[in-house]
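Figure S7 source data.
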Amino acid sequence: MTDPLLSVNNLESHYGPVVALRGISLTVSTAEIVTILGSNGAGKTTLLRSVSGVLEPHKGDIRLKGNSIVRDRPEQIVRQGIAHVPQGREVFPLLSVLDNLLMGAYTRSDRKSVEHDLQLVYQYFPILAERAQQRAGTLSGGQQQMLAIGRGLMARPGIMLLDEPGLGLSPLLVTEIYRIIEKLNRDLQVSMLIVEQNATVALRVANRGYVMELGRIVYEGESDRLLRSDDIKEFFLGRGANDEKHAQKRWKRKKTWR
Ligand SMILES: Nc1ncnc2c1ncn2[C@@H]1O[C@H](COP(=O)(O)OP(=O)(O)OP(=O)(O)O)[C@@H](O)[C@H]1O
Ligand SMILES: [Mg+2]
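Tokens for the predicted adenosine-5'-triphosphate complex:
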């Protein structure tokens, strides 16, 4: 196997006394789509925030192409090729669509290639070109999600961290967003680390998946195996999904499917 593009090793993150990540390890290869599934409060957002440098982990390591980035600042991490598309989009509502996109390129000084990438984003999301001068806060939820992904692309990332890109969108729009994510991955060879609660939709596009529960990984494996697994079906029916006793048990008999 080739060396992973991103590797997270035994990562622990806290919020004051609250332990949110209890030793997370995972890898993402070049041009791979990996999904992290888990119910509310499992620690998915905390994991992405720790990778993008928004939150400083207490323990463990994060490597990009073999180099540790665990103590780097968020802008240094963006510059090295990691773009974080946060949960709930977080576009700048009073700025225009165009200015939001340009904010995504704030670490870059190569104006010509920024202009080229802007046109590229417009190709994938034509609605953003139509609405370039409109305030971002007046876009629909789906359009704001497209803008958030487009803004991430403007950093020219090697890997995108997408936090629940389907959250709050209609099933039709979720399908559309995932179709574009797959296309971006295929055309531009951008790796994707996607956090989702909607297991089926994420596993359909992903190569591999991890399931998180109370700050730990309890299942991992290839997507088609996870999709067929009765354990995963049971998990997502919510039986004890975030109950400490069940979580401990599942973690102890953690399963790996290859
Ligand atoms: N700013 C914070 N201060 C204190 N505790 C926090 C903070 N943010 C998250 N937590 C706690 O850390 C744990 C993990 O939260 P996180 O947001 O990472 O979960 P999540 O898997 O993304 O959930 P969701 O699916 O609801 O977005 C939760 O117990 C949460 O209450
Ligand atoms: Mg979250």
